[in-house]
Amino acid sequence: MVNVGIIGGAGYTAGELLRILIWHPQAHINFVQSTSHRGHPISDVHRDLLDETNLMFSEADFQAIDVLFICSGHGKTKLFLEENVLPANVKIIDLSTDFRPRTNGNGFVYGLPEINKEKIERADKIANPGCFATCIELGLLPLAKENKLKEEVHVNAITGSTGAGQNPTSTSHFSWKNNNVSVYKAFTHQHLAEITETVLQLQPNFNKSINFIPVRGNFSRGIMATIYTDCDWSVEEAIEKYKSYYKNHPFVSITNIVPDVKQVVNTNKCVLYLEKHGSKLMIISVIDNLLKGASGQAVQNMNLLFGMPEILGLGLKPIGF
Amino acid sequence: MVNVGIIGGAGYTAGELLRILIWHPQAHINFVQSTSHRGHPISDVHRDLLDETNLMFSEADFQAIDVLFICSGHGKTKLFLEENVLPANVKIIDLSTDFRPRTNGNGFVYGLPEINKEKIERADKIANPGCFATCIELGLLPLAKENKLKEEVHVNAITGSTGAGQNPTSTSHFSWKNNNVSVYKAFTHQHLAEITETVLQLQPNFNKSINFIPVRGNFSRGIMATIYTDCDWSVEEAIEKYKSYYKNHPFVSITNIVPDVKQVVNTNKCVLYLEKHGSKLMIISVIDNLLKGASGQAVQNMNLLFGMPEILGLGLKPIGF
Amino acid sequence: MVNVGIIGGAGYTAGELLRILIWHPQAHINFVQSTSHRGHPISDVHRDLLDETNLMFSEADFQAIDVLFICSGHGKTKLFLEENVLPANVKIIDLSTDFRPRTNGNGFVYGLPEINKEKIERADKIANPGCFATCIELGLLPLAKENKLKEEVHVNAITGSTGAGQNPTSTSHFSWKNNNVSVYKAFTHQHLAEITETVLQLQPNFNKSINFIPVRGNFSRGIMATIYTDCDWSVEEAIEKYKSYYKNHPFVSITNIVPDVKQVVNTNKCVLYLEKHGSKLMIISVIDNLLKGASGQAVQNMNLLFGMPEILGLGLKPIGF
Amino acid sequence: MVNVGIIGGAGYTAGELLRILIWHPQAHINFVQSTSHRGHPISDVHRDLLDETNLMFSEADFQAIDVLFICSGHGKTKLFLEENVLPANVKIIDLSTDFRPRTNGNGFVYGLPEINKEKIERADKIANPGCFATCIELGLLPLAKENKLKEEVHVNAITGSTGAGQNPTSTSHFSWKNNNVSVYKAFTHQHLAEITETVLQLQPNFNKSINFIPVRGNFSRGIMATIYTDCDWSVEEAIEKYKSYYKNHPFVSITNIVPDVKQVVNTNKCVLYLEKHGSKLMIISVIDNLLKGASGQAVQNMNLLFGMPEILGLGLKPIGF
């Protein structure tokens, strides 16, 4: 049994962690820390957990745990680690962006099991990938592995609203967002560096731009990335390479039917689909931004950190509709 | 040409007023006051008005206008009128709740043309009705007129999100509200008093309760109220009475097909539908909460105040889908 | 291990059964019958099951199973049972309306565990309740148990689109239904008889009408029923009675915060909430129409039929957002 | 007054035409033909027109009209014109794809006023552009005009569900489409040829591919196209060129705030927005697919055909929310 603590327990990603860990057969939740809600039942905030747990938000107790999930928000993990000394044996899974950049020898392993599984199994600290980054990287890894990224990569990715967190703002307002879509941070999204680093890990000579246009979708969960680039593989070759790359990765599937976002919502899966048009290889990649794009992947990393089956506790019922 | 001023120009109801008045053949907008946005183009806030107007948010100039629409929010109109002296000839249409209670001789006429048309035509100050109130009252007026409200009245009404205004809150957050419905203020909604007063105007002996359950719908615009009560009319009689009551009221229609909310979205219409089951007469009433439930009705009142055709500028294209 | 067969495997309820049973620790799916899709992978139809199963739609093999789920659609179970002879040991869980009426001694037990748990444990054939019926009955059972239904019961219930099945029609068309709500079958819905029979089982002297207005909601999953009737309990008494009634029923929770539909979506839970206004007790009841309202309850019944823990395989991650 | 006839009156585009023409000050609707609904009120099908018209679906009477709108569906206009002889003076506006290809000297003028205004003013027959085509072409015209399309053009465009028409199918089913997005016809959409022809009209040397990925959005109305290509203009130059190109075109606006789809829903407007990133010029173009993308543009063409102001009857209230 793995003893778990959660920092920043009132946010979206902590809620998703709790929804998974409550039913995880080898996890025991020791504490869920929240400054703002301390002393209140966690089901007052995450109301769908009513009667599934009687945990209260509390202070952290680092002595009691084997692993700490940090869900504090971008920029706050660094601060947290400066202000707190954890016991040496406590492993860390950080869901923020703080330690994703790999250039600075920060001791964190980038927690994308589909590229770093062995490293993760031996690691103590995991920087859990971003949601857009996960979705797009899984679409590109087999190409990078084979040194096939020779030209610009074109990416349009539409995300559910939960990707923007729970803070209410003008662009999270239902009256505005309902039935509406819009572009934001085109060509400049902060996940671009993360994606490029991951590609370079497999294909160090990659030197073209990734033209990435993020879109705010009018749905709650999920990301669909549509990617294309020049590639001399036939579609059959590409499918074979992708299947081969992912054959030991239980959460990535290759489909031969055009996928849709809801096919993966409420699961830890990534579904990939390939088409060829002229010289262009098109890859469609869909994930649930809160699961494979955040908390589900965090649990996948926990399973690997502690030598458990990668899929333990992650056999989640899809939403379907 | 009627010269118009608007107070509180950045909110939802002011935006709707502007969308109507810009194309109104007999209205000229003199100023749109907003404390928070003064000096900025109104199309920076109401972005769909880009290139349809070059008006800027400004201070008020009461000397220049014939009518003032007050869109400041509930409780603020009283304050405004205490702090400002308007020229005697300036008529007022207030969209807040402040002057809707009729018991206190406040000089405001309740601006529901389907019960008070003649009074409105002679009035100087209009208290524009609430959105739920309008929808439900239009469903009850013919019954009250004929003294038929003898038993409890049961009302369930579901509203679009714009009814709650533009302030971002946890219950206006897209991630929560999307695909979600919930009850609020059951049996205690503030429009109940307004509805009861209107019913009593036509049927002073009404002394039963109106059991009103408001529901937050996961759509932006519209209200559907489902109403039933005991009534000894046959459905044919009821339809005849309703048609007769509304024959001189151009915005109320009686349909013989079960209506849906989108049938009236983006119009100033109210569509009513009647069924009889045992002793119960059921009335379904649908309106657009921002138009017949707010700004459209305000323009309808303006038309009546200035002796113009009631429908002028209100021939609006429905959304359809 | 319970060997399972499914008839009518291509529909919504069969899909939900499969999503649950694939991860159920004591269920083995022997066949999924479908006339229209025989020979194709079930993940071609239920695409979110890609790589979670390699089952194909096939013919039925009644010798191989312990329990048969019939998902064929209303009216077809009777026909099926006339045309097929099942081995004596095969238990049946029927998801259609065909055997829900209890007046005719048809050998089926009405599969609402919260009223019939012991009967279900000893049964061979289960008539799985309707979705509206489940949601409304769970709101009424504690009142009926205490003989408290003395006056008319008022019910407004809004349902997700999946309640209407997968056949594409004008009222299931996205362009129409999106952002739209409408009433259907007011006072005449076919579940009324089912609800009344269940109430009479606990309170045989109940002789008032249940005024039931069903509403088509613009969301995919979930039902929210708002119910009220005269009752002399205080709200505290009512809450105590409800908690007491449901204390051995793991899927029913009493909340003290107004619930919303998404709180239970993708779970087998029913959440109940109580308020008192004057003489009226109001009950809000929310369920997922495809789970507690159909396939989740069917699995709950299977668990009871075979002496397994009631919640086995039903620890489902809620959708949350 | 222009006398109007409509063929194929029961579909989405005919409904939109009617919603506009009923309030058009210089249009009189003589007949609305529909084979399937002949003899029924048009408000039985287009229910939001209840009490706004008492027109019935009828047979066509070509002698009575000045202009015929053909809304029959793709492939049927050719058939219609083979089977019917129209009086010489009757002008035609065809909303299908049948006569959009311009290579065959078919006598139809491509009805995009922003490139062909003078031709349209002198024309008798108009091929009304496609919705995706309109949205994307308006984003490209100023570049083509200045001979600036030198490299591949990358286009991702997401459309509302009404673009797929009213026939209910599995991909128009609310339960599937709600909260869902998916790609279709990537790189092969039938509007590509139309777009390329229009670009070539202004820049005959254009010989690169337009990589076009259409996406099904989970909203009813609107298209957002995101376009980018290499261009040596600065963003300031680009904005100036675009403003200059469209200065005499009242329905095209250039915004300096990232636009969203709802900004134009229920209007005939196209809003364009420009950004520059490295060598890439990005253009975002939003329209309402049923208005500027179909029926609104058809009325705009009617206005030009008959020498009326281009915006007559097209001062439509935006939906806003």
From TrEMBL, chains A, B, C, D:
**Would I find Oxidoreductase among this entry's keywords?**
yes
Q: Which residues form the Semialdehyde dehydrogenase NAD-binding domain?
A: 3-123
The active site is formed by C131
Question: Tell me, which GO biological process terms does this entry list?
Answer: L-arginine biosynthetic process
Gene Ontology MF: a single term: NAD binding
Q: In which pathway does it act?
A: Amino-acid biosynthesis; L-arginine biosynthesis; N(2)-acetyl-L-ornithine from L-glutamate: step 3/4
Task: Give the Enzyme Commission number.
Answer: 1.2.1.38
Its top-level enzyme class, in one word, is: oxidoreductase
- What's in the keyword line of the UniProt record? Amino-acid biosynthesis, Arginine biosynthesis, Cytoplasm, NADP, Oxidoreductase
The superkingdom of the source organism is: Bacteria
User: Record's GO cellular component, any one?
Assistant: cytoplasm
User: What catalytic reaction does the record list?
Assistant: N-acetyl-L-glutamate 5-semialdehyde + phosphate + NADP(+) = N-acetyl-L-glutamyl 5-phosphate + NADPH + H(+)
CDD domains named in the record: AGPR_1_C (cd23934), AGPR_1_N (cd17895)
The record's listing under SUPFAM superfamilies reads: Glyceraldehyde-3-phosphate dehydrogenase-like, C-terminal domain (SSF55347), NAD(P)-binding Rossmann-fold domains (SSF51735)
Indicate where this protein resides in the cell.
Answer: Cytoplasm
Job description of the protein: Catalyzes the NADPH-dependent reduction of N-acetyl-5-glutamyl phosphate to yield N-acetyl-L-glutamate 5-semialdehyde.
Matches recorded under PANTHER family: N-ACETYL-GAMMA-GLUTAMYL-PHOSPHATE REDUCTASE, CHLOROPLASTIC-RELATED, N-ACETYL-GAMMA-GLUTAMYL-PHOSPHATE REDUCTASE, CHLOROPLASTIC-RELATED-RELATED
**Sequence similarity:** Belongs to the NAGSA dehydrogenase family. Type 1 subfamily.
NCBIfam families associated with the record: argC (TIGR01850)
Record protein name field: N-acetyl-gamma-glutamyl-phosphate reductase
Q: Which organism is it from?
A: Labilibaculum filiforme
Q: Which gene encodes it?
A: argC
